[in-house]
Amino acid sequence: MSAEKYNKNWLILISKDSMLYSSISKLEETKWSTVCLPNTRELLQLVEEGISPRYVVWHVPIFREIHLKFCIQWKKKYTNTRLLVVIDKEVHLQLNKDYSFDKIIDFCILGNNYEKISDFIQKDTRDIFLSPLKKQSSPLYIPIYPGIKVNPSLRYLDNNGSIISLPAKEYELLMYLVKQRGNFVTIEQILLSVWDEFSSPENARQMIYKLRKKLYRNTPPYNILLYVRGTGYTLVDRKDSPLLSTKA
């Protein structure tokens, strides 16, 4: 194997989806050499041969515990490799308290939107060359409640290890409630801020109900998106919040 092969900036895609490979291989950033592999076994074989990938994109249609274990071991051993996992379905795994998705996986994308994936990788790979890889931090997460946070760049919710997608309006609604945290907001205020005056209050209530289910916790307080009749809705950020004693 030539020395040139060792010195390249390798972007490794692990996927059997030819469309995904086609999308990623057209990246404008010419500093990357892209290779598509069918499984992690071949990735490990490449590493044994002396190749050091700087960026790994792993397409896992259904993310299970066995995939999580691989990610944990990979990140322990190859700390300077960017790891992006593309998942087709929402993830519901019980994580050990010592782990969280932002510690194990640098980024996670839900859904097989090729344009979204390639656009994100385009920006992220460009950023790698703008600043040293070792100095890059984990992606910004907005804390909602201990154990619950939202990734604003990829718009998914991490609820104690469950990775849950947020459609556009649900994300806007959550961000509005975060901004108004500590204050009760009425359905009319939500409509004007997230929708418009012509939208139906019932549509907003249904969206609030869906978001509330995604924020649901398995231990008290179970609901952190509170509703008080005649007052409105609010989001609490800690278990000792005085808002929790407000009567519904």
Automatic annotation (TrEMBL):
<dbReference type="GO" id="GO:0006355">
    <property type="term" value="P:regulation of DNA-templated transcription"/>
</dbReference>
<keyword id="KW-0804">Transcription</keyword>
<dbReference type="GO" id="GO:0003677">
    <property type="term" value="F:DNA binding"/>
</dbReference>
<dbReference type="InterPro" id="IPR016032">
    <property type="entry name" value="Sig_transdc_resp-reg_C-effctor"/>
</dbReference>
<dbReference type="InterPro" id="IPR001867">
    <property type="entry name" value="OmpR/PhoB-type_DNA-bd"/>
</dbReference>
<keyword id="KW-0805">Transcription regulation</keyword>
<dbReference type="Pfam" id="PF00486">
    <property type="entry name" value="Trans_reg_C"/>
</dbReference>
<dbReference type="InterPro" id="IPR036388">
    <property type="entry name" value="WH-like_DNA-bd_sf"/>
</dbReference>
<dbReference type="GO" id="GO:0000160">
    <property type="term" value="P:phosphorelay signal transduction system"/>
</dbReference>
<feature type="domain" description="OmpR/PhoB-type">
    <location>
        <begin position="140"/>
        <end position="237"/>
    </location>
</feature>
<keyword id="KW-0238">DNA-binding</keyword>
<feature type="DNA-binding region" description="OmpR/PhoB-type">
    <location>
        <begin position="140"/>
        <end position="237"/>
    </location>
</feature>
<protein>
    <submittedName>
        <fullName>Helix-turn-helix domain-containing protein</fullName>
    </submittedName>
</protein>
